[in-house]
Design brief:
Length: 481
């Protein structure tokens, strides 16, 4: 979930008020009294109720419950927060889709506020305005000017471009930068890049099918339209079919049909990287970057935002059977409930796993709605995109994020949700798309009891990070860390 503009405005006002009053925290009633009615109209009969509703939905940063009463703490070094629509306006985007995509790919600075209410974990994504502006100036614009300067030695021309750019409003600056980027691509005959980009990976299925996928970030390096291009490998040039799959209902990766012979010549395997040198619009040189360990890094200059995923190896250890204990199949648990197990009396982590030879099938939106066990069902095409080939783990969860809650209580929410005993809020909306997989009755549930909070949350993040390092994306039913 994302904080909207009004939520962000209330958060900024709340921190401003607490700081002005020189206190460390305020109760919901006290804070509501200080907020002007035009910002949040209070209830005459139940003071603080509108604010408490925001608190219960996890939309107030720095909030917590003390003996059943909500308080909001002063956040040290607090900076003004903003929403997706605010970022859209700052960046000059015509629609917010590109922002959601960048959050998904971790290519824009963002933050997650996590809290809980009635043992339900609540997470809200928000942005810090200063970080967004630094990201724009440092990453999106600064590099464009420097690249253009490297291409053209005319200092006077660069000075004129910079002056023009500074005089433009934010949205027109973006247009100018796009023009400069386009100029660079047309003027520079050779470009180097890596396939795949970012957190994407070459899978064993790709190797088996003799293909390489061209994802969004590197599409501009390739020609438009399906055609034959030339690929040089070890000094020999080979004609290769390039398949342009742009258009349709959803964005799809382009495909290079290398064939098994060229896959073998490049010694590609799952997790390999290819160094590419672009010679011309339809001529490329491929070299296999050392297979085996893979390190990738996403950074943006002039801002304190970096995601580094360390070495990825084919032997990466994920939580194994020695850490988790089998509870039963989902079919058994839906029919009979949870067994009597001491392991379920503690906080801890759990995972849901498919059989080894499972081939995914998907239930459509209407079928899932009729079953009642998916509050917000996904379209089949979207589910297919979310599927993680070769992985058997489809969901990793926890019981006891910030307050003590046993595995039994949390897993009963899971079972009730799977039975269709749902409301708009759950009881277990996290991971609910796993019920759109055909044959979920065969899936197994595993648990690992831990100590009290914050141990389960720390372990869950570790498990998810390990999974991403190995497979390049989160488990099928997990949406975020």
């Amino acid at each position: 979930m994302y904080l909207n503009s009004n939520n962000c405005h209330i958060n900024n006002l709340a921190q401003e008020i607490i700081l002005k009053l020189k206190v460390s925290s305020l109760s919901a009633v006290e804070l509501a009294r200080e907020l002007h009615p035009e910002h949040l109209k209070d209830s005459q009969t139940r003071p603080g109720l509108p604010l408490r509703r925001l608190l219960r939905s996890g939309k107030i940063i720095g909030s917590r419950q003390v003996n059943g009463r909500w308080v909001v703490d002063l956040i040290a070094a607090y900076k003004k927060v903003c929403s997706v629509s605010d970022v859209q306006q700052i960046c000059g985007y015509s629609n917010p889709k590109s922002i959601y995509d960048r959050v998904h790919d971790q290519q824009i600075p963002f933050h997650i506020w996590t809290t809980s209410y009635k043992d339900e974990n609540l997470e809200q994504i928000y942005f810090i305005e200063d970080e967004i502006r630094s990201w724009i100036d440092g990453d999106r614009h600064g590099d464009v000017i420097s690249e253009y300067h490297a291409e053209d030695d005319s200092t006077d021309e660069i000075r004129r471009i910079k002056k023009i750019r500074e005089a433009l409003p934010e949205n027109l600056r973006h247009d100018l930068d796009f023009i400069l980027q386009t100029h660079n691509k047309k003027s520079t005959p050779e470009v180097t890049f890596t396939i795949p980009e970012g957190s994407n990976r070459i899978t064993s299925r790709d190797v088996q099918n003799g293909i390489v996928r061209i994802t969004r970030g590197i599409k501009p390096f390739f020609p438009q339209g399906t055609q034959i291009i030339n690929v040089d490998i070890d000094g020999d040039s080979h004609p290769v079919k390039f398949q342009d799959r742009e258009g349709g209902d959803r964005a799809r990766s382009h495909v290079l049909h290398l064939g098994r012979d060229l896959i073998m010549a490049l010694q590609l395997e799952a997790g390999s990287l290819i160094n590419v040198r672009k010679i011309s619009e339809t001529h490329f040189e491929f070299n296999n970057k050392a297979s085996g360990n893979r390190t990738y890094q996403k950074t943006n200059k002039n801002r304190n935002f970096m995601v580094i995923e360390e070495s990825i190896t084919s032997t990466m250890e994920l939580p194994g059977n020695e850490d988790f204990r089998l509870v039963g199949t989902l079919g058994e648990l839906l029919d009979n409930g949870l067994p009597a197990m001491d392991d379920l009396l503690s906080c801890g982590n759990y995972r849901i796993q498919t059989p080894d030879n499972y081939r995914p099938g998907y239930l459509d939106v209407n079928t899932s709605r009729q079953a009642g066990n998916v509050v917000n069902p996904w379209a089949i095409e979207r589910l297919k995109e979310k599927w993680v080939p070769e992985a058997t783990i489809v969901y990793i969860g926890l019981a006891g994020a910030r307050s003590r809650r046993t595995l039994r209580r949390r897993l009963m929410d899971l079972i009730r949700h799977g039975r269709g005993q749902t409301t708009d809020r759950g009881p277990h909306k996290g991971g609910e798309i796993l019920w759109q997989l055909k044959g979920f009755e065969m899936f197994t549930l595993w648990v690992s009891p831990t100590g009290d909070p914050p141990i389960p949350r720390k372990l869950e993040r570790q498990y998810l990070a390990d999974f991403v390092r190995k497979y390049g994306k989160l488990p099928f039913a997990n949406r975020q860390f």
